[in-house]
């Protein structure tokens, strides 16, 4: 009996010693975010108060009640989020970031006039790699301040956009533009294909940069250009970025030239698929919406842009009902929308749907927050990596303060995010586990230099266009 008791006592002491060691030696991680209210945007839309998130490398290792997470993990760096909201980083699904340097160049004109009379000529005279780098730096500062952690871009010299995006610590789906006239970076389709293939090769496997071909639209690209750029994308398993059904003239011309809508034409020529990110999707009827859903195309709604150029209103509620993944975008920060504030788009998306349908229930607060996070991730085909705060996903998150007059009182979190909170309430931004803004201080972008350079470019651009 004594021997049996001795053995049991030894086992007990061994087990309790192991438990004690586990309690006093928590697992080491790289970063802990503690004390906030976490809006996970997971499948159950779980909200956890007084929560904590453990980050290891660039991913979330664990998330849960603060006391539990802090007892299991330790980290050399901690972010105190007490009294604040923690959300997945916002996803700007469509923009042209170097165009920050054309902000306010020419406003209050129709899209077709804006493109052909003002922007295309201004780009031909001013856009080079240096322009693109400085415009991207300015855009990175603006987007980080607005809580944007991932953006989808379409422009020229996109390799330079990628380098500056990575330097800023942001995540980007970055499309090199294909267009059927000489562009600032490439003067022929052959040059565009060669440049883009090198671009795709260079960034394959990068944790932040997803390189892509971006045929501009059906009204600026021939069928051959559309097919060639899409084939290149599929050769490298890359996304395809394109404007789709953006204006009535595009829809009318497609009907006259092809006998079908832009969506049906793109489907017929083999462009549409689960790798396509389609910007705008305004003139899409029920048959179009069915095709977009069946093909797995992601659509990006740009409410400010569509209102500013009077292009029309995307049927977002109907697309969501049809099963289309719909995200949010700012569009370019010049002429079609003069800022990169995605929180403004969250607010406007809901209100635009309500007023155009005369129905306050057309698109609610939770729906538009979804469009900026998890549905935005689906629209850019990155929902396995980003869009919600869950173990295994990338540690892309924003911390929003609740101490400003516009932030209190708070009865419903989704309504507060959609209708009350502003970009200026974003305090801290973390992308891939890296703190890129802390307590409103940018850590990865020289904001002052970008602002100063933008003022210099204003004078150069104005002179080139005879505006001085």
The tally of strands reads 19
How large is the count of helical segments?
Answer: 17
> What proportion of the residues form beta strands (DSSP E)?
15-25%
Low-confidence residue ranges: 7-22
Average pLDDT over all residues: 94
Structural class: alpha/beta
| Residues in helix, % | 40-55%
Determine the oligomeric state from the structure. single chain
Using only CA atoms, what is the Rg?
24 Å
End-to-end distance: 102 Å
Biggest sheet architecture = 9 strands, mixed
**Any idea what the shape is?**
globular
Describe this structure in words.
The protein is of the alpha/beta class. 42% of the residues lie in helices and 22% in strands. It contains 17 helices and 19 strands. It has helices spanning 2-24, 66-72, 111-126, 129-145, 158-167, 189-203, 223-235, 248-258, 262-268, 286-295, 303-308, 316-322, 342-357, 365-372, 374-379, 413-420, 447-464; strands at 27-28, 31-39, 47-56, 59-65, 73-74, 78-80, 85-88, 90-95, 148-155, 171-178, 209-215, 240-244, 276-280, 298-301, 325-328, 397-400, 426-431, 434-438, 441-442. Strands 2, 3, 4, 6, 7, 16, 17, 18 and 19 form a 9-stranded mixed sheet that branches. A 4-stranded parallel sheet has the order 8-9-10-11. Strand 9 (148-155), helix 5 (158-167) and strand 10 form a beta-alpha-beta unit. Helix 6 (189-203) packs parallel to helix 7 and helix 13 (342-357) packs across helix 14 (365-372). Mean pLDDT is 94; it is low at 7-22.
